[in-house]
């Protein structure tokens, strides 16, 4: 058999390939030749073949068939064979393959070899891919080599020990005696790997960290080494851009950071050396900047002196002036982390940070924006907002939403006056109204309502803004609301803060009617506009024109607009005597949180519950948007949401599909209550009153309440049976029985329910989430309903399931409950 081609020739041949297919053909041909050579046990060219195989592996082609050949090379007595064999083992083997265990004995023999280079190969391989079993077997040999006087072996043994500790942390104490003399070594390679080993031990074991702080006095040794590096003259062996061994300096600074964290004595011992590093390191080269950055991180993490922290922040301030974008980004990120603890020191660099808002790099602009908002306080609010609003005008669309939210929060927290607050938010809505959060409209409406003395000024400003631009929908909605509330102030010209404008009633109505017909207006905006026109019927004299506009929209194709118009027409006809009282000016509004996670914000005479996720609730198995499905159905103000105790796992779906599920159940009552928690200890025991010391279903007395069929459609039938809880007669216990008459199982079955707010409801976990086909079984679930006022029970239900791979959803209203169930 002819001798195989050399690796160099193979590389040259592959590089001549013009297409991927041609390259694959060459690789396949060579792999076939290599396989033939392996089968013939050709020891002469095994090393060459494995080397070529490794090159193919680096190109991304399969080379697993050479694993055993690597083991044969490792067992060879020739150094050249061992070198390729160990390299192949590191590339082709890992601890997931049992073949690597066959190497253990070879590595052990080579660790005790008389040649240091063979020992080095074995240490490199063990440190690269040794499994936990191999590490346990060979840790003793590594520890012996760590104590040897040969610096070449000590540095490799230290890195190998790091790998052993990561794989088998309990072997850490074995290496403790060997670490005592490591830092006294003159060789920088040994020092570097020793610091890496000590860092690993300190990070993984608090006991080791305490031992090195107190018993070994590690900090003074590290300070001495670092001082020698700073003060030493030029050393060509370790010099990088005029700095002596920056890699070792960075490693020592990281270890000092770990040792000094939350420890006064250690921090005190390293304060001076950190100051020396910070002042003596050259900043003209990137190497010096890397050391300074590590120094800053160390100063910020340990219990350093205040002057040293100011020095560190000044270093970051100098980084902001650097031409390198990466250094500026690192500086902004670091300042953002320290701004809470050293606010005044960071404030000194405010102008430089604001200048970064004009940077072309989007990452730097985002960090600068976040840091600018963190620097805002009561003293600089006007200047900072001026800069940030200028940034909002000119920034890319991707920044506008976050910037607008930041301006809103800062203005709410530090506003020097209500007029300034209103002007600032209106400026945001004018320039970036399409990007603001959904809650900005009710928040601004609340702010305007509570600023009684600013009503005339605000409505005049908003009216002017409407004349200029109606494309920003949040601004239009706020303006419509304010004109409806304070239109009489606009027409009367009572504004004292600025020169009043002369506006007639017809001009105001023309603007609002224009919003109703504009293509730019969303359905929500049209609803605001129609309600504003209706409110003006009690503030303006032109009632006939308003009646005509309202009656036109009684036949609108928009259901929401049509419903509003029909109800307003009814006010004009049947209840005209009540209209002035119903449409009178809104009182001062307050955000009030009920005894749960629902926050009530009143806007435009309506109540909008803003759901906040309760932090005390236990996690459920379903996705987050499914858990909030039932909360989303609370679009109206007359229902009580329910959170199930447990829910079967269900694929994610749209969150808002139950919006206004109970919108037509308009019953009287107090404010909407919070979701009923499934944890009795974290909520008032409204349903389990008197049952806290008893099993869940005890003392349920059967009553003569007839069952009923609540739903029967598409093969799915839902029956309700009723019982009455003895300790609390106001609690009705409803058990649902879901059956399936189709030929296929209904999987991922979920039953959800909601009731008017005069009731309270608890939905317990179902018996299963699969409804068997052909009525071969039922799924049961218990509902508890508290009805303290003995009102007629009404319920909306939502059913979700999967049938033959297709998801099915349906809504239904249940109004025919037996009288015995609620009386």
From TrEMBL:
Belongs to the adaptor complexes large subunit family. Transmembrane segments: none annotated. It comes from Cottoperca gobio. This is AP-1 complex subunit gamma. Keywords: Cytoplasmic vesicle, Golgi apparatus, Membrane, Protein transport, Transport. It is found in: Cytoplasmic vesicle membrane; Endomembrane system; Golgi apparatus. PANTHER family: ADAPTIN, ALPHA/GAMMA/EPSILON (PTHR22780). It is a peripheral membrane protein. The gene is ap1g1. One of its GO terms (biological process) is intracellular protein transport. GO terms for cellular component: AP-1 adaptor complex.
């Amino acid at each position: 058999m002819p001798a195989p081609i050399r690796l160099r020739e193979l590389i040259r041949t592959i590089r001549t390939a013009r297409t991927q297919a041609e390259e694959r053909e060459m690789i396949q041909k060579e792999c076939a030749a290599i396989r033939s050579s392996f089968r013939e046990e050709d020891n002469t060219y095994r090393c060459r073949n494995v080397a070529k195989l490794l090159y193919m592996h680096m190109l991304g082609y399969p080379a697993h068939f050479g694993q055993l050949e690597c083991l044969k090379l490792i067992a060879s007595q020739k150094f050249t064979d061992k070198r390729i064999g160990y390299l192949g083992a590191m590339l082709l083997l890992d601890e997931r393959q049992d073949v690597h265990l066959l190497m253990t004995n070879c590595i052990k023999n080579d660790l005790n070899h008389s040649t240091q280079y063979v020992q080095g190969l074995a240490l490199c391989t063990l440190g690269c891919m040794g499994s936990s079993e191999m590490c346990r077997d060979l840790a003793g040999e590594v520890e012996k080599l760590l104590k040897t006087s040969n610096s070449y072996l000590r540095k490799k043994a230290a890195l190998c020990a790091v790998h052993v500790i990561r794989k088998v942390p309990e072997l850490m104490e074995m290496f403790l005696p060997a670490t005592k003399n490591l830092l006294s070594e003159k060789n920088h390679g040994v020092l570097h790997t020793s610091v890496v080993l000590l860092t690993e031990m300190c990070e993984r074991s608090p006991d080791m960290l305490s031992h090195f702080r107190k018993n070994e006095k590690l900090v003074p040794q590290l300070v001495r080494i670092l001082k020698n590096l700073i003060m030493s003259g030029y050393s060509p062996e370790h010099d990088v851009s005029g700095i002596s061994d920056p890699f070792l300096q960075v490693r020592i600074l990281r270890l000092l950071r770990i040792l000094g964290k939350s420890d006064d004595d250690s921090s005190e011992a390293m304060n001076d050396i950190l100051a020396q590093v910070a002042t003596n390191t050259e900043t003209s080269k990137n190497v010096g900047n890397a050391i300074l950055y590590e120094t800053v991180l160390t100063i910020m993490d340990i219990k350093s002196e205040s002057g040293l922290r100011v020095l560190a922040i000044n270093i970051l301030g100098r980084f902001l002036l650097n031409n390198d974008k990466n250094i500026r980004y690192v500086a902004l990120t670091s300042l953002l982390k320290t701004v809470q603890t050293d606010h005044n020191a960071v404030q000194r660099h405010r102008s430089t940070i604001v200048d970064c808002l004009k940077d072309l790099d989007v990452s730097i602009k985002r960090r600068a924006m976040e840091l600018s908002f963190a620097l805002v306080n009561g003293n600089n609010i006007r200047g900072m907002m001026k800069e940030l609003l200028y940034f909002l005008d000119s920034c890319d669309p991707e920044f506008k939403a976050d910037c607008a939210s930041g301006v809103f929060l800062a203005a709410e927290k530090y506003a020097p006056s209500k007029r300034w607050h209103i002007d600032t938010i209106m400026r945001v809505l004018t320039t970036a109204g399409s990007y603001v959060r959904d809650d900005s409209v009710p928040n601004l409406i609340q702010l305007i309502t509570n600023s009684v003395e600013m009503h005339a000024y605000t409505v005049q400003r908003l009216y002017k803004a409407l004349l200029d631009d109606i494309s920003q929908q949040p601004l239009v909605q706020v303006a419509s609301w304010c004109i409806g509330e304070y239109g009489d102030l606009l027409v009367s010209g009572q504004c004292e803060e600025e020169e009043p404008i002369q506006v007639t009633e017809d001009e105001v109505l023309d603007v609002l009617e224009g919003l109703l017909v504009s293509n730019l207006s969303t359905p929500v905006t049209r609803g605001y506009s129609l309600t504003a026109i209706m409110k003006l019927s009690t503030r303006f004299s032109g009632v006939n024109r308003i009646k005509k506009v309202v009656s036109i929209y009684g036949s609108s194709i928009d259901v929401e607009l049509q419903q509003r118009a029909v109800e307003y027409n009814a006010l004009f006809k049947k209840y005209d005597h009540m209209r002035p009282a119903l449409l009178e000016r809104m009182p001062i509004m307050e955000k009030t949180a009920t005894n749960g996670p629902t926050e009530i914000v009143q806007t435009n005479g309506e109540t909008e519950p803003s759901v906040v996720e309760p932090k005390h609730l236990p996690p459920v198995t379903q996705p987050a948007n499914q858990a909030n499905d039932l909360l989303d159905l609370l679009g109206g103000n007359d229902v009580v949401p329910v959170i199930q105790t447990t829910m079967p796992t269900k694929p994610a779906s749209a969150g808002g599909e139950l919006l206004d599920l109970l919108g037509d159940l308009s019953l009287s009552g107090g404010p909407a209550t919070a979701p009923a928690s499934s944890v009795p200890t974290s909520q008032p025991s409204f349903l389990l009153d008197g049952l806290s010391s008893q099993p869940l279903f005890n003392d349920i007395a059967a009553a003569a309440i007839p069952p009923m069929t609540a739903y029967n459609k598409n093969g799915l039938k839902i029956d309700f049976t009723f019982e009455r809880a003895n300790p609390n007669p106001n609690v009705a216990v409803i058990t649902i029985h879901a059956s399936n008459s189709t030929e296929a199982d209904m999987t991922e079955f979920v039953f959800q329910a909601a009731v008017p707010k005069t009731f309270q409801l608890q939905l317990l976990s179902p018996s299963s989430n699969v409804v068997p086909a052909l009525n071969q079984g039922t799924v049961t679930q218990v509902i508890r309903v508290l009805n303290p006022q003995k009102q007629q029970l009404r319920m909306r239900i939502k059913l979700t399931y999967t049938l033959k791979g297709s998801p099915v959803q349906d809504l239904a209203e249940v109004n025919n409950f037996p009288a015995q169930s609620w009386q």
